[in-house]
What we know:
The protein has helices at 125-128, 141-151, and strands spanning 2-3, 6-9, 12-17, 22-29, 36-48, 51-58, 70-74, 77-82, 88-100, 103-112, 121-123, 132-134. Strands 3, 4, 5, 6, 7, 8, 9, 10 and 11 form a nine-stranded mixed β-sheet that branches. A three-stranded mixed β-sheet has the order 1-2-12, with no helix packed on it. The chain is built from two helices and twelve strands, in the order βββββββββββαβα. Helix content is 10%, strand content 53%.
Amino acid sequence: MKILDKHVIGRVESVSLPEWNIDEIDAKIDTGAYSSSLHCHKIEQFKHHQENWVRFNLLDPDHEAYNEQLIQLPIHDIRSVKSSNGIAQDRFFIKTTITLFSTIYDIELSLTDRSEMKYPLLLGRKFLKNKFLVDVSQKYVSNSEQIDQGSK
């Protein structure tokens, strides 16, 4: 469903990370968070052709393709982020793409250990702004709409 030319999404959506060949990862929609974040570990900065890069392992025991995949990318930024417990930490930010409603979007993700959280991916206001309206009473709206479109 679209309202004011924006897709309506639920509090949890299934998304894909096409550059990493990862389909159907659960993402928590969090309008209280400014930035989006990705669950990973073994986060390590290194030099690649005189540029600052980061390598990390994706970690989600519920998703076989996601578990322990090694990713290496240029560092887009390093910023201080205040987590849900109120503690600030410096985080690496990377850029990639995400698919939602069969549309590919550019996204900036901070890299962090989200092992205490239920969902491996959090989508914050910076990504959501001007694209989506959130209906917290629903989940997986994008999946049901894609199925509906495919059956017409």
